[in-house]
Amino acid sequence: MASAPAPSAARLYRPNRFVSLPAELDPDTYDTSPEKRRAEAERLAIRSQLKRQYLLQLNNPSPPAVIEDPALIRWAYAKSQNVYPTFRPTPKTSFLGAAYALGPLLFWIAVLKAHRDYKEKRIQEG
């Protein structure tokens, strides 16, 4: 005789009072209030308008020389120009800064000094 199939893991799951739920199972993430749904709908509308505007520029028969994507401009600014608010001076960055600033200078001083000493020695030897 065949036994009944084993119940699925979803049916066997019981919340554990010692462990918190992961974010994916937290009701706050998927049980949204009407305000949250309205805000998400507004963000979706803004995204779709920006996407439509970009696609209209992209598929224009006589396009402008440069098609500007505002999201890409913001990302490029945050990546390249806005470095200092997120920079933290640490011993490692201080050492690397000193090495990059003084390293080449000390290297060329040593090379030029060695070359001058070599020439001086050859001149003295005749």
TrEMBL record:
<keyword id="KW-0999">Mitochondrion inner membrane</keyword>
<keyword id="KW-0249">Electron transport</keyword>
<comment type="subunit">
    <text>Complex I is composed of 45 different subunits.</text>
</comment>
<keyword id="KW-0813">Transport</keyword>
<keyword id="KW-0812">Transmembrane</keyword>
<keyword id="KW-0472">Membrane</keyword>
<keyword id="KW-0679">Respiratory chain</keyword>
<feature type="transmembrane region" description="Helical">
    <location>
        <begin position="94"/>
        <end position="112"/>
    </location>
</feature>
<keyword id="KW-1133">Transmembrane helix</keyword>
<dbReference type="Pfam" id="PF07225">
    <property type="entry name" value="NDUF_B4"/>
</dbReference>
<comment type="function">
    <text>Accessory subunit of the mitochondrial membrane respiratory chain NADH dehydrogenase (Complex I), that is believed not to be involved in catalysis. Complex I functions in the transfer of electrons from NADH to the respiratory chain. The immediate electron acceptor for the enzyme is believed to be ubiquinone.</text>
</comment>
<dbReference type="InterPro" id="IPR009866">
    <property type="entry name" value="NADH_UbQ_OxRdtase_NDUFB4_su"/>
</dbReference>
<dbReference type="GO" id="GO:0005743">
    <property type="term" value="C:mitochondrial inner membrane"/>
</dbReference>
<comment type="similarity">
    <text>Belongs to the complex I NDUFB4 subunit family.</text>
</comment>
<protein>
    <recommendedName>
        <fullName>NADH dehydrogenase [ubiquinone] 1 beta subcomplex subunit 4</fullName>
    </recommendedName>
</protein>
<keyword id="KW-0496">Mitochondrion</keyword>
